[in-house]
User: Fold these one by one.
Assistant:
Number 1:
Amino acid sequence: MSVNILMPALSPTMEEGTLARWLVKEGDRISSGDLIAEIETDKATMEFEAVDEGIVGKLLVSEGSEGVKVNSPIAIILDDGEQLEASETTNLIVQEEPKTNNTEEAIVQVEQISTNIAKTASKRIFATPLAKRLAKEKGLNLESISGSGPHGRIVKNDILSFSVSSPNKVQENFTSTKAKPVVNHGSNSSIETLYADREFKEIPLNGMRKTVASRLTEAKQNVPHFYLRKEIIIDELLIVRSRMNEHLANTNSKLSINDFIIKACALALQAVPAANSVWAGDKILQLKPSDIAIAVAVEDGLFTPVIRDAEAKSLSKLSKEMKELAEKARSKKLMPNEYQGGSFSISNLGMFGIDNFDAVINPPHGAILAVGAGLKKPIVNEDNTIAVSNVMSLTLSVDHRVIDGALGAELMQNITKYLEDPVLMMA
């Protein structure tokens, strides 16, 4: 009996994804556990394993297809000797139509899949995902390009060589938008109309950028932010860091200011346990461990890998783990358990020379700490003398549903205590 393979939900927030690459072809025999595809989510590119065994009867979604809804059919598996008729394909899809509350939408999805199958059967252009992306960026029609890859597949070099021989095609990438007649389909088209007489390049949103835009918009609209600001003196922190790095010189490891900030926040959450909480809709969840998320900038967006049990780890261990997670984030190799969860976030733009800023809370976290650059500033001592010290700006963005003002102030006081007297972190 034939079985539909559905687009998997590879993370709790995933609603759609890109089928980056098939690792099987029609007619292949697969077993449970075999890798059959690479799926690009809003966070990473992950390999997808087969659950059923049989013969790949039909690949319903072509490589590089974007916006494939979770639980929509992407392939059909057949038993030995079973044949798949074209008329049966639609029936199979209807039996396992995508989960939706809108019946009309489900019918439209099934009809679109059936149409795509018919088009694929009549003519299919084989190209690598990279080649498709390059062709789209350069405004090239894949039907006019001959592929030099296996079985005539269009590869990267085919796009590049075609672009060189047809330079006018490249220019279309920047000017075609101006030449198109503008049709008003809503606010987005209205915005394009404003720039119809200007040269611009249209950049499609990838999965990560869509998710970032959606989550941050939701956070600013639905989370009642308030902000606590504090300038702290980090002279002692810089001295301690320098001494510790001297001792670590032979270990090829080096502590950063950020490592101390992570540790300080983790210990502060232990000192103020009521602030170590997340918003869960109809309740508040107060966590026992300090799981700290750190914003890492990557191409086209950002990740927030989570260091779990940060309060129990040494500074050198925190530093090593943070470097590993940051590298995996930049190469989009993070596993879901490495970026999900946490109760508190840190966003540090000090290394970019930013004095101070307000960060947007990462739901369901209760707070996020924005860290600015360390700057030399004049300060007034207790004896009214003036001295120059290294001062760093902190801004704590707090979800008022989870943490009240006094509780947030107590948390900020404890973060300050550990950063201004870092020896307390070693106790």
Number 2:
Amino acid sequence: MTPPITIYHNPACGTSRNVLGLIRNAGLEPLVIEYLKTPPTRSDIIALVQKMGVPLRSLLREKGTPYTELGLDNPALSDDALLDALNAHPILLNRPIVVTKKGAKLCRPSEEVLDLLLTPQQGAFSKEDGEAVIDAAGNRV
């Protein structure tokens, strides 16, 4: 059985680690897909885009990727060309993407995940940089 929540995660990314922390702070243990080790397939990416209701291009990450070198800023590129690039270079997939029964979204900033969770936060939570996000009663700060 698939867990009720999935995160496409990069453990080297602070935002991704904060999102995972918020999920766990709600008492949930998600299916963690380290997409650099286990890249999503073409059909996985298409399904994510459809579930998110966003254009494929919105999932591309520019910073720290070969985005510019590959000419992905060309608006004339087809979704097939973008999918080819994502398959060849999984680092191009922006993260973290979280999927729950409530929907799917790119959780940047990390607080975006709170809209997808079915259970409340169970206590205080601060981001890695010390910014308080959730108070001791489990409420957004």
Number 3:
Amino acid sequence: MLKSKLKSLSPDFIINFFTKGHERSRKAKRNIFASFMVKGISILISLALVPITIKYVNPTNYGIWLTLSSIIGWASFFDIGFGNGLRNRFTEAITLGKHELARIYISTTYAILSIIILTVFVIFLFVNFWLDWSKILNTSPDMASGLNVLAIIVFAFFSMQFVFQLITTILTADQKPALAGFLNMLSSLLSLILILILIKFTKGNLIYLGYVMGGSPIIILLGSTIWFFRKKYRQYKPSFLFVKFSYAKDLMNLGVQFFIIQIMAITIFTTSNIIISQLFGPAEVTIYNIALKYFSLPIAVFNIILAPFWSAFTEAYCRSDHAWIKSSVKGLLKIWALMSVLTIIMIFSADLIYRIWVGPEIKIPFGITCLMGLYAIMINWNNIFAFFLNGIGKIRVQLYSSTILGVLTIPVAVLFGKAIGLEGVILGSCLIMFLNSLFTPIQYFKIVRGTATGIWLK
């Protein structure tokens, strides 16, 4: 028995694991392995950033920063789904050998998103004069003017990232999510280095934090965009000559549906910070986000595994390779079960980890830990089937379910929050996620069994 196990870990076995099987599977396995290496470093950096950033600006200001970032993040609504539309259309085009069409899709997407975000930024500059961020964030009125400046800084960097992050979309569509993850890791590493420099040479300042956290991704993404379009993706380099707005409809037919789902997802995932800040104050946002960050680990790990499959499902569906799809989903379900067990272990280890990670001063109630763990398990379940459906563009059921549940998110969270407290806000999110997770597996099984009709096939 022992000899057999040792043999299974031999170099030959490991080499065969990565070199045998369907080419699509080999790509996925290589990307998963590389992504684990990259994401492992990213997670360590992300975990280190939390206590270091809290040390720099204090827990209350950190809560303010998180809430403001969540609000600014809503501007990603204006993507109108073009990013995900490009992801699917680019994969389809290169799968079918239509390289000029792929370049048209890329050039057109860059042009449209640049126009959209420039317009939105100008509108924001005007509206920002009338906003009282101290009231929005439930902070001291003395901070109003500084928060207005911080909002402009964060939004300016976000606007640039809105366009430049398309290079990660292209890498992921080309079934290279590990490379896209590497760019994100570099951004986080640069942020960490710059915050350590701030701690050494300055006192806690939200404006400086805004420059560091907003500027770091821009430096990495802009450099990467120039590099890849001069090298590997030279034939797809964006050009005004290949901007054809007539193709926007092709991107938007799928993109608008992604857009609405994206709005509902952001509503579900980001409104909690604002609700908690309004009901309980910014300090409670920090408690909520520490627990959320902790349980983002199993979500992040599972997303590493899932990442190559979106575009792989697109390719497999284009080639009618249903056997590979079924086999892949079956394997992902087994991994989900294992990840769920590990998440439960994380729940009971949480108090020790919190003390080591952020110190004993910040107390995270066990009820919040349990609910956040349950939330992570449900997100991972939902993502298995959502990645398949997103990859093949059959998202009408998700569109309707996420719209209805997204509208219910805020009132449910507020109602539960007022009745139960901070735990109630998370419980409301769990209820919404549970309901949202019922429909995607039903649609998946209908499609792979060939029994999908009507809305289930759209």
Number 4:
Amino acid sequence: MRVSVVSLVLVGCALGGSDGSGTVGDATSSGTVTSAACATTDNALRFSCWLALDEADEVTWSVYEGDALVRTWVTQTSSTPVGELWGLAPETTYRWEAVAAGGSASGEVTTGSLPSDFDGMSLGTSGDAPGADAFLTNLSCGGFTGLVMVDAAGRVVWYQDVDSDGGTGSLAGVTGFDRDADGTLLTAVDGERLVQWSPMGDVLAEATGFDHPLHHDVAIEDGRVWALFAEEMDGRVIDGFVVVDGSTQVASWSLADQVTVSGTTNSQDGFWGQVFPGASDWAHANSIEVRDGVALVSFRWLDAVMGIPVDPEDGDFGEPLFTLVGQSGGALAGDVVFADGGGFDGQHHASWSSDGHLALFDNGTSNSRGLHVDVDLDAGTATEAASFGMGRTCQIQGSVYDLPGGDVLVTCADAGEASAWPADGGSSSWSMSLTCGGSRSGGSTTTRVMPITW
């Protein structure tokens, strides 16, 4: 990250970035805050601000758009605290405040315009805004490849480009992303790199040198990372995941060690055509979500979701807790089956909802849908709890996330659309469309839209 360096004693001066990405207005200070200043960065929507204090103190920072509070946070005790201003819309003026026990500072910044790489992007929203602060997704548009956050009003409020060499076939660009509880962002890039980012664009950790290509999805919990991989075995593409701490792989898991691999579940569908030419795509893992050391892994062509302990220090690491199947007669029998005639077909993004349901995107056929499932592990049964129908076919990716207040966010990746729904089903109350050049968001790499709270 490039930052225009500003002396802490420059107060009352207008500061601008050399790249024209934004402008910084006057800053004032009082009491124990003896000086304050801000500077642009190489990102049009981010600024760094500094304070000088008579003595070390905790500082509360706030950013306002007009009278509306955009974001607030606290920096730890320091005599020279730094405030990181991000989550800001383009070409907009914001007021910032920093309050310590014995003094304060304030000023204004004005964001720049989005890079020209975004010129082909089409973004819009409609309906009543849900409670999330922003919505995170991956995007390939023009010369941009990376992550973006969009607010409920349909404005890009954060972006991070990644260095992509184009990957191989469907592995180009950002193939998976996630966000840790502390705000750390995770990307898988070109099927070969895992990169952790701060919201200001600093690289916190990077891992490379994997034995097999990474694909589709990654997960992060308390700084530890899990990433799906694939390898060819006897003419079939078989999936697994690696476990990474920082830049070091510490464990791996393969589906072939847990189930009998035989027959052909799906012919080569093009996804692995350039990586494993001629091989059958047997399971097609397409999501991994980790909570409290247990992963839910979705396998598309098996119509199955596995619950797996994934903490390498756990003595049961890798031994499936259960396998839920959405269709009878498939390659896996499963130990949890639907008791009410329900099910799912070619699903994506399996996770646990906040109220204990298993949530997933049922790609299905003519009416793809978000789905909440009640799972009774003791009885080995599953029943449908709620369904959120898209009214269209969404065959590529898709996701289901909780929203603040109890609603549900569902993504139809084919159309580059996300929509908010009441948890009991009902009808959609808000929607967002994000496309580039008339195609779905992210081209062939879109996975999901994730709600973000600062």
